Amino acid sequence: MIKVGIIGSTGYAGQELVRILLQHPDAEIVWYGSRSYIDKKYSEVFGNMFQLVDDKCMGENMDELAKKADVIFTATPQGLCGSLVSEEILKNTKIIDLSADFRIKDVAKYEKWYGIKHQSPEFIKEAVYGLCEVNREDVKNARLIANPGCFPTCSTLSIYPMAKEGLIDMNSIIIDAKSGTSGAGRGAKVANLYCEVNESIKPYGVASHRHTPEIEDQLSYASGEEVLINFTPHLVPMNRGILATSYAALKKKMSYEEVKAVYDKYYKDEYFVRVLEKDVYPETRWVEGSNFVDVNFKIDERTGRIIMMGAIDNVVKGAAGQAVQNMNIMFGLEENTGLKMVPMFP
Amino acid sequence: MIKVGIIGSTGYAGQELVRILLQHPDAEIVWYGSRSYIDKKYSEVFGNMFQLVDDKCMGENMDELAKKADVIFTATPQGLCGSLVSEEILKNTKIIDLSADFRIKDVAKYEKWYGIKHQSPEFIKEAVYGLCEVNREDVKNARLIANPGCFPTCSTLSIYPMAKEGLIDMNSIIIDAKSGTSGAGRGAKVANLYCEVNESIKPYGVASHRHTPEIEDQLSYASGEEVLINFTPHLVPMNRGILATSYAALKKKMSYEEVKAVYDKYYKDEYFVRVLEKDVYPETRWVEGSNFVDVNFKIDERTGRIIMMGAIDNVVKGAAGQAVQNMNIMFGLEENTGLKMVPMFP
Amino acid sequence: MIKVGIIGSTGYAGQELVRILLQHPDAEIVWYGSRSYIDKKYSEVFGNMFQLVDDKCMGENMDELAKKADVIFTATPQGLCGSLVSEEILKNTKIIDLSADFRIKDVAKYEKWYGIKHQSPEFIKEAVYGLCEVNREDVKNARLIANPGCFPTCSTLSIYPMAKEGLIDMNSIIIDAKSGTSGAGRGAKVANLYCEVNESIKPYGVASHRHTPEIEDQLSYASGEEVLINFTPHLVPMNRGILATSYAALKKKMSYEEVKAVYDKYYKDEYFVRVLEKDVYPETRWVEGSNFVDVNFKIDERTGRIIMMGAIDNVVKGAAGQAVQNMNIMFGLEENTGLKMVPMFP
Amino acid sequence: MIKVGIIGSTGYAGQELVRILLQHPDAEIVWYGSRSYIDKKYSEVFGNMFQLVDDKCMGENMDELAKKADVIFTATPQGLCGSLVSEEILKNTKIIDLSADFRIKDVAKYEKWYGIKHQSPEFIKEAVYGLCEVNREDVKNARLIANPGCFPTCSTLSIYPMAKEGLIDMNSIIIDAKSGTSGAGRGAKVANLYCEVNESIKPYGVASHRHTPEIEDQLSYASGEEVLINFTPHLVPMNRGILATSYAALKKKMSYEEVKAVYDKYYKDEYFVRVLEKDVYPETRWVEGSNFVDVNFKIDERTGRIIMMGAIDNVVKGAAGQAVQNMNIMFGLEENTGLKMVPMFP
To answer: Where is each Semialdehyde dehydrogenase NAD-binding domain found (chains A, B, C, D) (predicted)?
Structure first.
């Protein structure tokens, strides 16, 4: 039984970790961390957990946690994990960080986009970017995982095969993404009130969203080129789900079958990546509540571009699910253990 | 491994049966029945099932089905199950009928409220009303289960302890219920289009809804009196969930603790019924995707009435989940096998 | 041109006042009051007002306001209007208070249900309860209007004809109401976040909601009896709209036609009250954005009860629209001036 | 008083025409056409119109209509208007066609994208493309207006100033659009049911949507170049609204102020086009129920691209509102007569 501590268990991603881990056959939660709700029963914060979780919320005593837990998930705002990690801690336990603290290898880039000083740059190099389908081997032996962002997961996996094979013009990439509102977190802000989000769609972080350098890094690693992209997220009136619609110029004319073969090369053995049938496009409803990434593409012969689309559940494959997938890999379990949830519809 | 056939697998309740049974450790689906989609791949009808179900939809060849399946679920419109059942079939297999065909013991009453002639009244007496928490013993040996309606499940379980103990005036009961739109089915009707349902709430079937006699029957059995109620369902712009708010006059003044003891008497050992803490009321979001029934009550000393509230997921405890719970009981499994899904939020 | 000042113009009701008054032929807004956004441009708070309103938000300097404005609308939390009103002010201007401060004639009752001390009980007697269809004559000469609450407006108008004519048992009344989320206000609270409200329905304020005594008072005035009711509001995932479903025992058997005649007696000349056709029930979508109240009823012969239903747009007839209707009456305008908005669908 | 006939008055666009025209000071509806609901009261089809419209639905007797009406709006499926128009008709009345029949000047292109044979190609040349802000002068004297599509209106107006001034690489344009569900029409289809649309976002018509050639034509006219674009619409779970996010490579480096001056050159005197403040992006909620087009842009210096964004209400500026705007121009009225609706929020 893997003993799990969660720091930040009362955000949406934290709560999803709880939901998943309660149903995981080989894991047990030993620490429900939450600064905001210390000493409050977890099931009072999330009524779905009534009679399923009896624990109270606790602060983040890292020394105690490191002794108790085989692995710690940090589902916390940027900067917190960076301030908590230490060699001492990592000798005793593993950390899977759901924040951005260890995703960007270039500390100056991190500090510029996130506007904060990194508290433990010495661990950035060691940290493994936990995009499981791409970095599986490195994840196996990692002590510290930088769990990917929701948009980067969806965008990168949609584009990866074409980037890796060098088939698209890497500086022609435009990613137009749409996210459900759980991605905005559980903080009490007017902008996220029901009446403000409902019946509307809006772009945000235009040409400035923090996931931009993360996506660019991953696409650069895949293609071996320095990549600059346009990335525009939009807020959609729904709870869960991300859809990324990505556009790129094909370097040469390709048929559907040729591109399909490229996607299959990378994904046909991946349990969580489903390359859809021809002319069937990803829809977030078909992955809701699951760890699946549905991807597909369309070639536009008129413009010479390819449209690459991907859909995930942002709190599962985009956060808690992928974190557990990383845990499974790190602890030598079957990668989909506890993650075979059938998407829930409607 | 229990071999399961589903007739009507392409409605919302049928699809939920598939979702649940795919994750059930002791069941295997051998027949995806659907008149509307014969020969179409099931995963083309429901994209969430892509790479999880390879089968095609089939018609309802009952002889073949009865041989192949240990149990048949009929998630079909009223009248169909009644037309399919026979002694021959029931000798070979069990039937769990999610329609209303065998819920009303008085055939005249059924025919009046449903406006159709019953095709096999000879099986009505044998059929067991599968409200598991109430009729568990009878379910164990049943060949034919009348799986309860969504509103009756939620309403009856909310009121049952008070009715059974004779503590409320049975003819003062008013049930005001609110349902998500999946309860309206997957038929292509203007009234159920997104733009018609969204941003609105409406009552329907006022003083005439077909679940009225079903609820009245159950409350009559519980109380030993002939009961007439008011029942008003409302359509709510959400996918899943039923909330029933029920009002009744208390026969005598009672304290919170006294009423709580009554609820606990019936439900404290029930896995699926959660009696909430004082002054915490049921909300459908806390049971979504699960088989839980959350109930609670409030005494209004000013008016001498008790308000009894219950929340379920209409396609789980209100349909497919309870059907599987019945299957578990009939086949001697732990009652919550494959049904321990943690409610999904948000 | 009526010069209008609005205190509390940046809540949902305040903003709706602005929307309506901008399109009113005889009114002009001279003061956009808002403590929270002083000196911020109004159109930065509400983007819909871009290029329509150039004013900045201001505090509530009552002396200045009373000189500038012919009428002041206070769309503010309970207690504020009570603390601002004075003989001095009322000599110079009229006040239409959208809060509860002057709705309850019994100051002790007000203080008990609202939990605050009333700041100006000397004006309670003078204040006119602005339920226009009922108190039109008194409104004409009022200096201070207590604009009715959203639930009381919808509930009272649904029940009024039956209560006034003495046809129902007044102590059998149960009102089960459902409200869109704009009724919860624009404050930044976790409970009102998109992901908390969406895909759920919940009761709140069970047997304790502050609109209870207001409804009881109005029904008492109508019937001439002391009335106690059960009132249960529910939060619905939609922006606007209230549906009230009310139940009462008929004192004697009545036909549809007889009851219809009673409703017509009171409402057939009312522009804003629409008594629907037989068996057509109110739906909030059909009144959205308008000042209409749609009402209808159904007699249940089995139980001897009548179900009375009403639908309004909570921010129009339930708040800003009715406030403007009161203004029209007070200033001798046609009652529906600036209020003939056709309901917007979908 | 302009006498108006509407063919196709029971679709969402047709109903919006009714809503707008009922509030128009100089227009009167004399014909509520609807093949599907002949002889049914219009207010039974749309409950919001109860007591506002007494008329019954009628078929499309063009001869009679041409005599009765000064202008006919056809809010009908592709092909119908083309089959009804004739010199005879146009001698007696004007036609504003909300379908695509007369939008594409090249009949072969129309027939290829729409897959039907054009019934009256002889009128294509005469027809004026009613994008008011661009073709105002031609609209004045037109007999036959091709009212623009919803996506083309939003996309073209977002991009127009940059295209007209030759500041962007016309073959680099990618338009990623998001639409509310009313755009899918009121037909009874499973794909548009509440539970299918809610809680999901999906792309559709990828690289094949029929609005593509219409947008390309307009951008070609503006720039004087043959333009090919990528256009991807997405279905969003909301009733109304279109957001178009468009990407293009700037031909040369430009500052915010330079681009702003370009937008102001075209739009500063346009009542319905609102160029937002710096770093404020269009959101559909701020234009709901109104005829406004909110536009803005962001320059991404890193990639050398400009992101141009626009938001409209698809049934107003994207259909009925623009149609009435065209009517106003054709009949010499102030262009915003009856169209000054303040956007409704929330």
So the answer is: 3-142
